[in-house]
Amino acid sequence: MGYFAKTRVFKVDPDNPDHEIISLVSRLLVAGKLVAFPTETVYGLGANAFDSTAIGHIFEAKERPSSDPIIVHINELNQVYKVAIHVPDITWMLAEKFWPGPLTLILERNSKIPESVSAGLNTVAVRMPNHQIPRRLIECSGVPIAAPSANLFTRPSPTTAQHVYTDLKNRVDVILDGGPCAIGLESTVLDLTGEVPVLLRPGGCSIESLRHVIPSIRFKPNYLSMGKDITPIGSPGMLLKHYSPRAKLLLFTGNHAKAIKKMVHVSRELISESISVGVMVSDEDERHFDGISVKMKLLGSHENLTQISHNLFAGMRELDENGVDVILVNEYSREGLGLAIWDRLVRASEGLIINSPIQEHLTIKIKDYALTISS
Ligand code: TXA
Ligand code: MG
Question: Is the CB of 144 under 6 A from ligand 1?
């Protein structure tokens, strides 16, 4: 049985949230209800972090496996101790520089936080969001708020209230509509519980900026470490299904001009087979698809990774709604926010990565058509 709730949507000013709405919704949170709200990264599906029943409802509503732990959101530094214990000094150095903001820290869990929040782990993920709506909710309710992204499990994270409604209608009590999220990708997750800090998920806070504070941070996901040019493994199924649109997403990597040329070629081939093609490219690359009947989603200038990240998940959802069978996308610089963009594209592609040095040909079944692309 899933969690059922009649969903109410309130529009809220993101900079100056209406006090009456915040106070009403805070009471609902304390009473165990589920509330979706914007943050600077993506929308979150929140519940009182001390309430294990409400936490159970989050997992049900999202259809999220109970093995995937949830981030706890706080509003003030001293609340770290409500959530964690044995907090290392480095936490405060990072907090001073990056909180409120898109950085999540893994610490030792305070036993007052139910085990289910952390999927049974002794650790807990903590973040102070840089957004007035969750911050006022935490302040007014007096409890930390546990919140994963407010999407159905495996779907792209929601960056507007409409995305949340599409996924979670009648599975969440309240959606606070504070407009689109600024960053559009989730927070960076950094584990501080081991000997060396380990980056578990690249996100809105760049690894370069973190390394200014802690030069020793380690980051080595297996899909980034193959080959000399940190190239992806090209094997579908080896990647966690995550952040995926319904359409198959093909990620074209390597030399930019060649990648675009291949995308144009593949678009033509698929269209001739009556397959509906979506393309997500930068503004600068739009012209290459002139006269080809693809559904186009422009992500912004390739020089502006903030724009690209802001539009990435929204673009996947928009093309899905247009009913495309396949989405073609190319890669961007992997610096700064670019690493998170790369990470989400690799995951969304589920290994359908073109130009991997370890495979010469990739054959992909799209509807009844077998598309073969050579590297
Ligand atoms: O930007 C964000 O982080 C958004 C907003 C709502 O804050 N939240 C979000 O939550 O993206 P979610 O649940 O979609 O992703 C949380 C990530 C997952 O990859 C999870 O495995 C990891 O954080 N995580 C949570 N608790 C953890 C823990 N104790 N140890 C290791 N990883 C943890
Ligand atoms: Mg998520």
Answer: no
